[in-house]
Write a structure and sequence with these properties.
The protein is α+β, with helices and mostly antiparallel strands. It contains eleven helices and eleven strands. Strands 1, 2, 3, 4, 5, 6 and 11 form a seven-stranded mixed beta sheet that branches. A four-stranded antiparallel beta sheet has the order 8-9-7-10, sandwiched between helices. The chain is globular and about 60 Å long. Bound molecules: L-homoserine. L-homoserine (HSE) binds next to helix 5 and helix 6.
Length: about 325
Amino acid sequence: MKSCSAAAPCSTANLGPGYDVFGLALDALEDKVKVSRIYPGVGRITIKNSDQAIPSMVESNSAGLVVKKMMQDFEISDSTEIEITKGVPTGYGVGSSAASAAAAAMAFNALYDLKIDRNRLVEYAAEGEVASAGTKHYDNVSASLLGGFVICRIASDRLQFTRLEPPKDLVLVVVVPCLEVPKKKTEVARSVLPKMVPLKDVVHNISGAATIVAGFALKDVETITRGIDDDVIIESARKHLIPGYDSVKQNAISAGALAVTISGAGPSMIAFLKTNKNAKMVAAAMAKGFKETGVESRTFVCRASKGARLLAL
Ligand code: HSE
């Protein structure tokens, strides 16, 4: 039996106005996935999982869906065993399904020496998002695989993932509330979004998103955070899903955060800071915001991650 293993970090998506387009890899937590080749085999995929909350059926598991699609496309008829060690909590908006999917794509590519280019590898990893979101989206998986800040061009003629190196002084505070989240939470959080939006709101969000990109290009945290504040479409539609949203946000700003937004589809919240001077205070203030509504939480102070990596066996 031959095996390859990879680790992929958690991530935050959207960064306010960049819904489905922006992802940022975070060095707080990671998933590890080992893919083993059993030959001769009958094309069967089995999944071993460290977290019982994650489905082990191929069709409902993000790593399983990625491996299934790669086996189909490359006409691989061995049997495959996927062993997942979860570090990223599932269903909280920090790219848990994406981390497993990204690690699985990277490990499978190495196992069969497929030499898939990075754009295509992101596309394979995105297959896994169907398990939790009901549809493919690229923001979390691209960041988890490529690391840093990633802009996804999602036009169907040619997907493109552009990675920008985040400024060294960018510090993130992620607060994960201990809430019960619905099954397929991302699908639920997507269903509350408006299907149509006024042109002036689109212009507002484009302005914010462009400002974020400018901030990463200039390596200027203040410009990035100004842009994050400019979402008028997504957060207002989702914030009712997060008990304590207003207090968490207000408390973070009062404690020195430059911007605060929902991490991905939530319910985690993420604050953006320049240097980690106030980071612990911001974390405590955000946790207090959740606590005021009776919700315990876990806090992480982190920086941008370099993305997925192969692990020595
Ligand atoms: N862009 C996706 C969403 C991220 O907001 O639904 C899901 O983690």
